[in-house]
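Work package 3, deliverable 3.1, input record:
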Amino acid sequence: MFGLTIASQKGGVGKTTVALNLSYAMARRGWRTLLVDTDPAGAIGLSLTKKLSQAPGLADHLYQHTPIAGLIVETKLKGLGILPTGKIPADESERFTNGLADGAVLKAIQTAAQGRYDVVVYDTPSGFVGATLGAMRASRYVVSPVQAEPIAARGVMRIFEVIGALRAKGHPVELLGILLTMLHTKTQSSLAVAEDLWKTLPGNLLFEATVPRDPAFLEASAAGVPVGLLRRRPPPIAMVFDQLAAELEARLAPD
Amino acid sequence: MFGLTIASQKGGVGKTTVALNLSYAMARRGWRTLLVDTDPAGAIGLSLTKKLSQAPGLADHLYQHTPIAGLIVETKLKGLGILPTGKIPADESERFTNGLADGAVLKAIQTAAQGRYDVVVYDTPSGFVGATLGAMRASRYVVSPVQAEPIAARGVMRIFEVIGALRAKGHPVELLGILLTMLHTKTQSSLAVAEDLWKTLPGNLLFEATVPRDPAFLEASAAGVPVGLLRRRPPPIAMVFDQLAAELEARLAPD
Ligand SMILES: Nc1ncnc2c1ncn2[C@@H]1O[C@H](COP(=O)(O)OP(=O)(O)OP(=O)(O)O)[C@@H](O)[C@H]1O
Ligand SMILES: Nc1ncnc2c1ncn2[C@@H]1O[C@H](COP(=O)(O)OP(=O)(O)OP(=O)(O)O)[C@@H](O)[C@H]1O
Ligand SMILES: [Mg+2]
Ligand SMILES: [Mg+2]
C-alpha cells in the first residue's frame, strides 16, 4: 500500500483529469486503486456523476467520524474505488482543507484501506497549501502535471522546493515524475515550452507519456466518465494513461 | 478608490490573464490602476518579465514592513502600476497566503495608494481560502471568470455562496459579474456549456464580453506582455478587454 499525490502549484493543469484517468488505468492493470478527492471544490464528483457529487465523503469522516470504509464508492470497474469529498459549502473550504493539512486523516485512509486497496491516489487543489501539503505528507510519491504553456512551465521548479522542504522535515515523499499536459503541437508557444522542458529537465524526471490537448477530455467530463469509457472502443488518448501507468510502475521502488 | 478582486474556486480559468489584460484596458481608459498579485506562485510576474518575477513586492511589505509605495512597479503604460508578490519560496506559500487572509494588509494597500490610483485590482490563487478570501474582504467588487468547460461550469454557483457568506459577516463586497472564458466554439462540449450558462444565469450577471480560447494568450505570455501589446496593431482579442472594461464601468455604483 502506498499513497500517490497528484499536485501542482498552478491551477487548471490537469490534476483532476490525470488523477481520474490514471486511477482508471492502474485499476485496469490490476492495482486495486482508491481515488481520494481532497479538493473542497469536489472536482472528482464534478467530473463524474451528479450522484457522486452529492454523496457523503471525506467531510463526513472529518466532521462526523463516519468510518472511511462506508464512504468509499465502488465504480463500474472492479478494483477502482472513489472517496469523494462529501458536500462542502463554499464558505467551509478553509475549514476542510486546514483539517487535512497535517496529513494525519489522509494517512489514516491508507490504514483503513489496507488489504482492500494497493494504492491510494490523492487529487488535490492547486497551490502548496492545506490539503495538498497534507496529501504529500501522507504519500510516498508525487506526480506533478505541468501544462505545456509558458506561465505553468516557468513555475515547474517549485515542486522540487516543496518536496525538498517536506523531506527535510522527515516526510519520505519523492517526486515520481513530471507529466507534460495539454501539449498543443499546432501552437508554437506550447510546442516551444515542451521542447524547452525536454531539453532542460533531467531524463528520469519527465515521463515519456505526454498528454496532448484533446477535446475528448471535455466530452468525457460532459458525459461523466473517464476518457477510456467515452466510446465503445476507447479513443487513442486513453492509451496515454495506460502508458503512464506502465511507466509509473517501472519507477516504483521495490517494497 | 475601490478594490476589485478576480476570483474563482476552479484553477486555470484565466484569473491572471483577465487581471492583467483588464487592468491594462482600464488604464487605457483613464483609470489609474494598481494590479496586486496575491498568488504565492507570483503569476503576474510569470506572465510578464523575469525582472518583475524577481523584484521585491508584497512579501517584503508583509515580512519586513517595506512601505507599499516603494514596491510599486510603474509599467510602460502611464496609469498602470503593479505590486508583485516578491520572492516567496514554494514552502512559504502557506505563511504568505495566511498572512493576507483577513484582508487587513490588502485593504491597507488601497489607503497607501489613495490619490495615486483609482482602483486596485487583486489577482488571486484559485480556491476560496487564504489570500483570495482576504482580497474579497478588502474589495468592493468581484469579477469571477468561468471557463467554458464542463468541470468549471458545474461549480459556477459557488461564488454566490462565498460572497453571500462574506456579506452576512458585514463585508460589503458584491459580484460585479461572471466572465465566460476559453470559449471554444469549434468544440461542442465547450459551446454547450456556454449556451447553458447564457440560458440559466440571470441577464445582468454574465458579462456580454466573452473571452474565446485563442493562442494569442500563449504568445503574449511567452513574450511577457498583455495581449494588447503583442503586435504593433493589437490583435482583435485585445478588444474583448476594452469591451469588458466599458461594461464593468457601466455596472459600478455611483460613488
Ligand atoms: N489534455 C487535455 N486537453 C484538453 N482539455 C483538458 C486536458 N486535460 C484536462 N482538460 C480540461 O481542462 C480543464 C482543467 O483540467 P483539470 O480540471 O483536470 O485541471 P486541475 O489541475 O485539476 O484544475 P484545478 O486547479 O481546478 O484543480 C478541465 O475542463 C478539463 O476537462
Ligand atoms: N482565452 C484564453 N485562450 C487560450 N489560453 C488562455 C486564455 N486565457 C488564459 N489562457 C492560458 O491558459 C492558462 C491559464 O490561464 P491563467 O493562468 O490566467 O489562469 P488562472 O485562473 O490565473 O490560473 P491559476 O488557477 O493557476 O491562478 C495560461 O497558460 C494562460 O496563458
Ligand atoms: Mg482539480
Ligand atoms: Mg492565476
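Chain B touches chain A through 52 residues (CB under 8 Å).
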